[in-house]
Amino acid sequence: DFRVGSSTFGKSVSVELSSENKKQLFIPKGFLHGFSVLSQDAIVNIKIDRYFAEGESIGARYDDKYLNIDWKIKKENIILGEGDKNLKSFKKLKLPFMYDDNLYKTITKE
Taking the mean position of all CA atoms in its chain, how far away is CA 60? Predict the structure, then answer.
């Protein structure tokens, strides 16, 4: 949860998706997300609410100690995408989302 003011700010949830359980995961605006592939191969489909804009993505390091996410993969077996190799820790990220009465407000510089 990357929404400033949310009672769950900085908390994470893990869900295992598979062809057997046929689950999907909806990630609302204001939440960071990532995935690990636990099988030999996988097809990952991502649907977003607008066209992808290169350079506008925000992300935290996969091994961030504050988030403490168990990716269920040995560290020596992790393969990162190019965009993930130089990410900052969660606490060093700029905070673009405010949480207020279930509404999302984007923080803008005035």
Answer: 8
